[in-house]
Amino acid sequence: MEKKYVKLQTEIPGPKSKEILERRNKYVPKGISNNCQSFVKKAQGALVEDVDGNHYLDFAGAIGTLNVGHSHPRVVRALQEQASQFIHTGFNVMMYESYISLAERLCELAPGDFDKQAAFFNSGAEAVENAVKIARKYTGRQGVVSFTRGFHGRTLMTMTMTSKVKPYKFGFGPFAPEVYKAPYPYVYRRPDDMSEQQYSTMIIEQFEQFLLAEVAPETIAAVVMEPVQGEGGFIVPDAAFVKRVREICTQYGILFVADEIQTGFARTGKYFAIDHFDVVPDLITISKSMGAGVPISGVIGRAEIMNAAEVGEIGGTYSGSPLGCRAALTVLDIIESENLNDRAEKIGERVLEKMQLLADRFDGIGDVRGLGAMCAMEIVKDRQSKTPDKEAVGKIVKAATERGLMLLSAGLYSNVIRLLMPLTITDDQLEEGLQILEEAMEAVYLQDPALPVGGE
Q1: 3-state secondary structure of 58
Q2: How many CB atoms lie within 10 A of CB 317?
Q3: What is the chain's pLDDT, residue by residue, as a tens digit (456 residues)?
C-alpha cells in the first residue's frame, strides 16, 4: 500500500530537530524522557508534522491523552472562545459555570444509582492524591492498597502506590507510609499447568490472604485499581477478580477507587472501563483524554464521600481551570456526536485482528490483548520461555519512528508495544499505521534495513 499520510523529507530526527535537540540537552534535565527525538510543528487528528516537514501517524496519542485527536476543531473553537472571555479567576476566588456544568455531566455519566459529586484538579497524579485524601477523611483510616504493576503517578504518594521501581521510584525514597501492594491477575504469565479458571481462583485467594498477611482490612481507607493496567502493560483482569475485590471492599467498609486516567473517555469502548466489569466504584479518578491535551483531572464519587472534606481542604490554584473545563465539556460532546465509544470497539477489533496476523508471522509476539481500542502486544524471546525482550521492543519502536509511526512501549519488563491512536483516526490512516508497524517488525525480525521507510 502506497503511503498517503506519512511523508518523510529528512532522516529522523532531521537537521532542525537536531539543532533544537542540542539546546534541549543543554537546558532540560535528562530525567525527563523523550520517546521521539523530533520536535512538533503542528498536529491535527492522528497526524503530526515536525519542524523539518516530516509527517507522522500518531499511535501514541500523548500517552492516551488524545482520544478525540490533535487539535480537534471544536476543542480549538471552545478554547478560543473561553480565552477571549477570561482565562482564569481561580475557582476558589470567583466561580464559573463551566466547572458546574462539567461536574453535572460527569456525575450523570459515571456508574452508580446514587447522588454524586465531582472535584477537579490538574493532573492524573493530583486526582489520585486527592482520592486518597478524600478516602482517608471519610473513613478515618490510613491504609491504601494498590496493585502489582500498577501506575498512578510520580508524586510522593502516587509514586509510592506505583509498582515499577525503575525508572519511577529508584533513588527517590523514603516513600509514603501505609501503602500496600496486592496481587493483580496476569493471565499470560500464569503457571503453564494452570487453566485460566484455576488461575483466577488462585489470584482471588491470594488477595484474600493478602488481607490476613499484609494489612488488616479494618485499617484500609481505599483500594485503588486500574480497570485495565496502563503502564503495567495493558493487562485486562477477569471480571470475577474485579467483582470479588469490590465485594471485599463493601464487606469491610473500604472505598473502591477506579483509576480511569488512561482507560476513561471512550478508550475501551465505554466512558469508563469499569463499566465492562459490572462493578460500581465509590470514587473514580479521571484525566488524560478528559481535556484533549489541556491539563485537567478530577475525582467523581458518592456525594457523602466527596463531602467529607471540609472547606479549603481540597482544590488548588489552577484546579479545574476554565480552559480545562471548556475543553472537557467539548470532549464529551465529541464522544457523543461522533460515536467514539462505538468507534473504539471497531478500532480495537481491527487492531487485534492485525496483531494476531503479526503473531502468526513472528514468534517474538507472545501475547496479543486489549479492551476496546486499548490494545497491546507482549514481545518475548520465544513463546516457550516467555522471556521478556525489552531490546526487541526498543528496536521496533525506533524502526517505526524512523518510518513515520509514533509508538510507545509499556510493561513491568518494558517489553510491551501499546497502541493509543486517536479514536478519530480514519480507516485509511489506521491501515497505513498498521502497515508501518508490520514493516518495523519485519526490519527487526528479518533484519533487513532495506525494507520500506516512511513514504518511500
Answers
A1: strand
A2: 11
A3: 678 999 999 999 999 999 999 999 999 999 999 989 999 999 999 999 999 999 999 999 999 999 999 999 999 999 999 999 999 999 999 999 999 999 999 999 999 999 999 999 999 999 999 999 999 999 999 999 999 999 999 999 999 999 988 888 888 889 999 999 999 999 999 999 999 999 999 999 999 999 999 999 999 999 999 999 999 999 999 999 999 999 999 999 999 999 999 999 999 999 999 999 999 999 999 999 999 999 999 999 999 999 999 999 999 999 999 999 999 999 999 999 999 999 999 999 999 999 999 999 999 999 999 999 999 999 999 999 999 999 999 999 999 999 999 999 999 999 999 999 999 999 999 999 999 999 999 999 998 665 655 444
Cα→Cα distances 38→26, 201, 443, Å:
16, 47, 21
Specify the 3-state DSSP secondary structure of 432.
Answer: helix
The cell for 160 is 509510592
Strand order in the sheet with 365-371: 365-371, 374-379, 416-419, 408-410
Q: How far is CA 94 from CA 122, 214, 322, 326, in A?
A: 18, 46, 11, 16
- Under 8 Å CB-to-CB from 442, ≥6 apart: which residues? 448, 451
Residues in the chain: 456
Residue type, position 58, single letter: D
Q: Are residues 234 and 370 in contact, defined by beta-carbon separation less than 8 angstroms?
A: yes
The residues, ordered by sequence, that sit 6+ positions from 142 with a Cβ below 8 Å of its Cβ are: 136, 177, 178, 219, 221
**Angle at CA of residue 225, ends 221 and 175, nearest 5°:** 65
Torsion of CA 336, 338, 344, 350, to 10 degrees: 160
Domains and CATH numbers, the chain: 74-337 (3.40.640.10)
Q: Are 104 and 275 in contact (CB under 8 A)?
A: no
Distance CA 451, CA 448 (A): 6
Q: Which residues pair with 370 in a beta bridge?
A: 375
